[in-house]
Amino acid sequence: MIHLANVSKDYLTDTDSVFSALKEVSLTIKRGECISIVGPSGSGKSTLMHIIGLLDKPTKGTVSIEGKNIAHLSDDELSKLRSQFVGFVFQQFNLINKLTILENVMLPALYARKALPFEAKSRAMELLTRFGIADKAKSYPNKISGGQQQRTAIARALMNNPKLILADEPTGNLDSKTGKEIMRLLTSLNKKESLTVIIVTHDPTIASRTKKKIHIRDGRLV
Amino acid sequence: MNGIIFALRSAVEDFGRNKLRTLLTSLGILIGVSSVVLLMAFGLGLKKYIENQFASLGTNLLRIVPGKILEGGSFRAGGPASLGGIKFDIKDVQSLEKISQVEYVLPVFSKSTTVDIGKRSELADIYASSADIFKGLNLKAAYGQIFTKSDVDKHAKIVVIGPKIAKKLFMYEDSAIGKNIKVEGQNFRIIGVLKAKGGGFGGPDLDSFLYMPYTTAMVFNPEKTFIALVVKTTDNANVAQIKKDINNRLLRRYNEDNFSVIQQEELLSAIGQIFSIMNLVLVSIAAISLVVGGVGIMNIMYVTVTERIKEIGIRRAIGATKRDILTQFMTEAVALSLFGGIMGLTISFLIVLGVQRFFPAYIDTMTITIALVVSSVIGIVFGVLPAKRAADLSPIDSIRYE
Fold first, then answer.
1. Which one of B2, B14, B396 has the shortest CB-CB distance to A56?
2. Cβ–Cβ gap A99/B399 under 8 Å
3. B322 — contact with chain A (CB < 8 Å)?
4. Within-domain flag for B242
5. Distance CA B77, CA B270 (A)
6. Where would I find the ABC transporter domain in this sequence (chain A) (predicted)?
7. Nearest Cα to B60, choosing from B306, B289, B262, B234?
8. What is the pLDDT of residues A14-29, one digit of tens each?
9. Looking at the domain assignment, is residue B57 inside a domain?
C-alpha cells in the first residue's frame, strides 16, 4: 500500500549546514498491518511520519501510495489525497478549540466536499456514539477530559473512511489507564476493520502492543 | 459554496469571541462609509432642494438677464460676460409681448433699501413688477389681497409684503394689513401679506420681499430700467422657437454677449453640474478614510493569522487545501469590512432621519449599493495578503507551532 524507496530528508539548519533527518530509508507497509515506529526523540521518526502522512515530500527517493508516485502531485492534489487516504491522531490531540466536538469531527468531511452537511453530521454522531462520547457532541474540547479529546481526534481521523491511521505518540499526554484504553481502541480498529494503523512512539511498552515494530535511530532503520 | 457558508459562520463566531477587537477594527470602515454615505445623502438632498425651489417658482418661464451666463450648458468660465452692461426697459417688455405663445412678460426691478415704521428701521428688498408676478411665481395672499393691473396703471402707492418681513415689522402677519410704511421717505400702504414660500437657501428669499407695482417703483428707479425680464409662455408652447424669437428681437437693440435667455432646465442642469463636481471632490476626500480603515483590517488580519498558525496546520493536516484556508481568511476580512459598512450605513440612516426635519437629505438605493460594494471590495483588497500568508504556511511547520 505504501512504499518508500531510498527516502532521504535534509533540512537547512540556522547555521546553513545540512541536517539529514532521514537517510535512505526504504520500507513497505501492507494493507491491514499494525505497525509501530519506535525511536528516541530526534531519531527522525516524526519526519518519517510526516512523509508517510503526505504532509511533507522527501528530498531524495520516492514515495508511492498504492503504486502512485507522489512526487508529481500538486499541493491541492496532495491535500485531497491526504484527506481521503490518511487520518491523523496527535499527541496534543490538536482539536480546534473554538469548534464543538461534533464540528471538529465533521470538519474533514466538509473539506473533502464528498458529503452534504447533514450526512457528515449523522456520520460524525455515529462515530461519537461508537466511542461513547455522543453526550459531549455540543461541548468544546477544553471542557472534556484528555481521554475524551483523544477519542474525538480518533473519530475525526475516521471521518472520511481513510485507509491508514497515523498516530503520533497518541498516549503521550494521557495517564497510563487512559493510554491503555486508547491503544486498545486503535488496535481494535486494525483488527475489526482491517485498517492499517501506524503508531509512532518512543515507549517500548506501547510498541509491544503492535505486531510489527520498526526501529529508527539517527535517521536510519535499525 | 458550503465552504463559504462554513467559513462565514466560523468568522461570525470568532467575532463574537473578540467583540472589542471586531468593533475597533470595523470602526475605520464604519467612519469611512458613513462619511461617504452622508456626503452623498446631503448632496442629493441639496440637489433636490434646489430643484424644488425652481419648481416652486413656476414652470414655462424663460428668464432674460444681462450678460452671457451659460456656455455649452454650463456656467461660463471666468464669470458672465459683460454682466450688468445693459439694462432692459419698457420697450423690451412691449416688444417681447408681441411674440406669439407668450402669455405675459414680467419686468423685474429690485433694490435693497430700508423700511421705516415709526422710529424703527429694517433692511428689506424691493421687488417691483407687474400684477402677473404673483401668478408667475406662484405667490398667494395669506391676508388682505395682491395688487392688480389697475393698481399698476394707477401707480398706486401700495405694497404687498412677504410673511417674514411682516413678522419682523408687526409681530403678527395679519396686523400689517392697512398699515403705512415709509420706504426711502415715501409712504406706502400695505394691502396684503403673502403665504410663506420657504427658500432663502442661497436662492432668492421670496418671503422677505416688498412687492410693489413697477410703475410706482420708478421713483426709486430714475433710469426706468429693469434688471431682468421673465417671460411666461403658454402651456404646450414651442419653447425653442420662442427663445429664438426673443433672441432675434433683443439682437436688434443689444449685442449677443450682452444678454442671456435662460430656460429653467438649463439653469438647473448647470447648477446640478457644479454640485456633482463639488460632491465628487468631497466624497473622494472622505474615501481616503476608507483606505485607512482597510489598512486597519489588514493589520488585524495579519495578527489573526499569526495567532492561528496552529489551527491552520491542523486544518491542513485533515484535508484543507490552500484555497480552503484562503477562502476562510478572505471571508473573515470581507465579513469584518462589510460589518463596518453595514454599521456605517445604519448610522448614516439615523443621522439622515434626524436632520430630515431641517434638510431634505436622503439615501437612495444607488448609495446603499455603492456602500456595500465598496466595503466588500475593501475587505477583498486588504484581506488578500494576510489570507495568502495563511494559505502559504507549510502544514508541518504550522502544526508544530506552539
1. B396
2. no
3. yes
4. no
5. 12
6. 2-222
7. B234
8. 788 888 888 999 999 9
9. no
β pairing state of B141-144 and B186-194 = antiparallel
Residues A170 and A148: their CA atoms lie apart, in Å, by 12
Interface mutation target, options B5, B12, B316, B318, chain A, most CBs of A under 10 Å: B318
Structural domains counted in chain A: 1
Region B82-109: mean pLDDT is 83
Residue B83 has pLDDT above 60, yes or no: no
Q: Is residue A199 part of a domain?
A: yes
Is B26 among the domain residues? yes
Among B203, B227, B251, the domain boundary falls at B227
B9 contact A CB<8A: no
B6 and B127 in a common domain: no
Classify residue A31 by its DSSP letter: T
Contact B322 A80 (CB under 8 A): no
Among B171, B192, B227, the domain boundary falls at B227
pLDDT at B79: 60
Residue of A nearest to B324 (CA): A111
Angle at which helices B309-317 and B264-307 cross, to 10°: 80
First to last CA, chain B: 32
Asked if B14's CB is within 8 angstroms of A96's CB, the reply is no
Instruction: Report the pLDDT value the prediction gives residue B10, as an integer from 0 to 100.
Output: 75
Residue of A nearest to B18 (CA): A98
Closest CA–CA distance from residue A222 to any residue of chain B (Å): 25
Contact check, Cβ <8 Å, A94/B314: yes
Q: β-pairing, A212-217 with A220-221?
A: antiparallel
**Which run of H or E residues covers position B115?**
strand B102-117
Minimal Cα–Cα distance from A9 to chain B, Å?
Answer: 14
- For residue A36, give the CATH number of its domain: 3.40.50.300
- Structurally, chain B folds into a number of domains equal to 2
Q: Mark the ranges of chain A whose per-residue pLDDT is less than 50.
A: none
Domain that holds residue B193: 107-227
Element (H, E) at B322: helix B322-355
Q: Lowest mean pLDDT: which of A182-186, B15-19, B332-336?
A: B15-19
Chain A residues at the B interface, defined by Cβ less than 8 Å, are 50, 53, 55-56, 75-76, 79-80, 82-84, 87-88, 90, 94-96, 98-99, 107-108, 110-113, 117, 156, 160
Nearest beta carbon to residue A112 from set B17, B319, B395 = B319
A213: in domain: yes
Distance CA B147, CA B125 (A): 18
Which of A41, A51, A94, A169 to substitute to test the interface with B, most B CBs within 10 Å? A94
